[in-house]
């Protein structure tokens, strides 16, 4: 029973274009969502988060959108850069992120020069 | 920024060996540390949550006698895989969280291979 789903295992975009990574969840009790980026042989690095009381959070080139009614969130990266190539994990949590994280399987993003 | 150090990064050992993995928060005091495991092509799955000075809380299906967790200080948690067998081969990764509204910060993980 996977509570957090990333249905696209991979995504390829051109440099300068927008990357959109999607994530769906099933548990409506999740109240905090995070995106992590992971390079090979390294641990996940925190990227951006959003509380369930918001529908958008922006940090530089990265924007996360949350649609609670659809139980869907997305990460937009614009403009995409080759250095953004990595595996992106969506995670959900309770109690503002201080509790355990439930992860999706990840989406491998490749940004082509 | 916050740094979590995990050691060793890779272990290869014989079946029956016990393996200890260390997780340290380098520039903050971690009130809580988490241990995750990832099998190939699967998501990170939480194994246990540990708070300094108290017993770890294990997720359903994780054997506490098999995976011993010690959180002896606010900067160090250890995971010991006792009498490891080939089915314990996996990627183990820790995370730590300090006070306030901070996200979990992850170590670089340990690739455990049991022959």
The tally of beta strands of chain A, per DSSP, is 11
Low-confidence stretches of chain A: none
Question: What is the string of helix and strand elements of chain A?
Answer: EEEEEEEEEEE
Percentage of residues in helical conformation of chain B: under 10%
Number of helices of chain A: 0
Stretches of chain B where pLDDT falls below 50 for ≥5 residues? none
The greatest interface between two protein chains, and residues involved on each side, is:
A-B, 22 and 25 residues
Spatial separation of the terminal alpha carbons of chain B: 37 Å
**On the 0-100 scale, what is the average pLDDT of chain B?**
91
Assign a percent range to the helix content of chain A.
Answer: under 10%
- Strand content bin of chain B: over 45%
SSE class of chain A: mainly beta
Contiguous helical run count of chain B: 0
Succession of helices and strands of chain B: EEEEEEEEEEE
Main β-sheet description of chain B: 7 strands, mixed
Q: Which structural traits does this protein have?
A:
heterodimer; A: about 110 residues; mainly beta; five-stranded antiparallel sheet; B: about 120 residues; four-stranded antiparallel sheet; globular
Note down, in words, how this protein is organized.
The complex is a heterodimer of chains A (113) and B (115). Chain A is mainly beta. Chain A contains no helices and 11 strands. In chain A, strands 2, 4, 5, 9, 10 and 11 form a 6-stranded mixed sheet that branches. In chain A, strands 1-3-8-7-6 form a 5-stranded antiparallel sheet, with no helix packed on it. In chain A, a hairpin with a 4-residue loop joins strand 7 and strand 8 (72-77). The model of chain A has no long low-confidence stretch (mean pLDDT 94). Chain B is mainly β and 115 residues long. Chain B has no helices and 11 strands. In chain B, the strands form 2 sheets. In chain B, strands 2, 4, 5, 6, 9, 10 and 11 form a 7-stranded mixed sheet that branches. Chain B has a 4-stranded antiparallel sheet with strand order 1-3-8-7, with no helix packed on it. In chain B, strand 4 and strand 5 (45-51) form a beta hairpin. The mean pLDDT of chain B is 91. Chains A and B meet through strand 5 and strand 10 of A and strand 4, strand 5, strand 9 and strand 10 of B.
């Amino acid at each position: 029973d996977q509570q957090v789903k990333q249905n696209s295992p991979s995504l390829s975009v051109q440099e300068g274009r927008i990357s959109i990574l999607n994530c769906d969840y099933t548990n409506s009790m999740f109240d905090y969502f995070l995106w992590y980026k992971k390079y090979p042989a390294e641990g996940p690095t925190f990227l951006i988060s959003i509380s369930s009381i918001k529908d958008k959070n922006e940090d530089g080139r990265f924007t996360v959108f949350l649609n609670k009614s659809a139980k869907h969130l997305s990460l937009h990266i614009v403009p995409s850069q080759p250095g953004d190539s990595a595996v992106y994990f969506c995670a959900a949590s309770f109690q503002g992120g201080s509790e355990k994280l439930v992860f999706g399987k990840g989406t491998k993003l490749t940004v082509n020069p | 920024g916050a740094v979590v150090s995990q050691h060793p990064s890779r272990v290869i050992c014989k079946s029956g060996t016990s393996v200890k993995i260390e997780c340290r928060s380098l520039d903050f005091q971690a009130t809580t540390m988490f241990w995750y495991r990832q099998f190939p092509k699967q998501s990170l799955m939480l194994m246990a949550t540990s708070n300094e000075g108290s017993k770890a809380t294990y997720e359903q299906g994780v054997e506490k006698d098999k995976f011993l967790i010690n959180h002896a200080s606010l900067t160090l948690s250890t995971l010991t895989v006792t009498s490891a067998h080939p089915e314990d081969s996996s990627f183990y990764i820790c995370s730590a969280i300090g006070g306030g509204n901070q996200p979990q910060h992850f170590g670089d993980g340990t690739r455990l291979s049991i022959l």
